[in-house]
Write a structure and sequence with these properties.
By secondary structure, the protein is an alpha+beta fold. The chain has three helices and four strands. β3 and β4 form a beta hairpin.
C-alpha cells in the first residue's frame, strides 16, 4: 500500500508511553502489513515481505521487553484476509490467505513463521 514501514518507531513510541504513563500494561492489538499475495499452484503464499515485516517488529518487541516496558500481549493484523473499509477486498493483511469465492483458507509463509516463533519461544535475529 506504499505505507512507510518503520519498525524502530514501535520501540520509540512504546518507550515514550512507559516514560509518560509508567508501568501500565501494554497490548498491541493490531500490527501487520499489506503486500501483494499470490496463491501458488501448490496452495501456498510465499509472502517474504510480510514475514520480514513481522521479524523486524518482533526484534523491536524483544528490545522493549528487555528494557522493562510492560508489553503483555501482541496480536498480528490480521489472521485472515478480510474486507477493509477503505480498500474492500483488494488489499490483503492476513497471515492466512482467503479465497473469497470459495472461502478456502491457506496459511501463508508468515503464518508458519509466527507459528515457529511461538513454538520456539523466539527466534535468532
Amino acid at each position: 500500500m506504499d505505507w512507510n514501514v518503520y519498525p524502530d518507531g514501535l520501540h520509540k513510541v512504546l518507550t515514550w508511553v512507559r516514560e509518560e504513563y509508567g508501568d501500565t500494561p501494554i497490548y498491541i492489538t493490531e500490527n501487520g502489513a499489506c503486500y501483494e499475495d499470490e496463491l501458488t499452484s501448490d496452495k501456498r503464499v510465499h509472502d517474504a515481505k510480510r514475514t520480514e515485516y513481522f521479524k523486524k517488529h518482533f526484534i523491536q518487541l524483544h528490545r522493549l521487553i528487555e528494557s522493562g516496558v510492560p508489553l503483555k500481549g501482541y496480536f498480528a493484523w490480521s489472521l485472515l484476509d478480510n474486507f477493509e473499509w477503505a480498500e474492500g477486498y483488494r488489499k490483503r493483511f492476513g497471515i492466512v490467505y482467503t479465497n473469497y469465492a470459495t472461502l478456502e483458507r491457506h496459511p501463508k509463509d508468515s503464518y508458519f513463521f509466527i507459528q515457529k516463533v511461538i513454538a520456539d519461544r523466539g527466534f535468532d535475529a
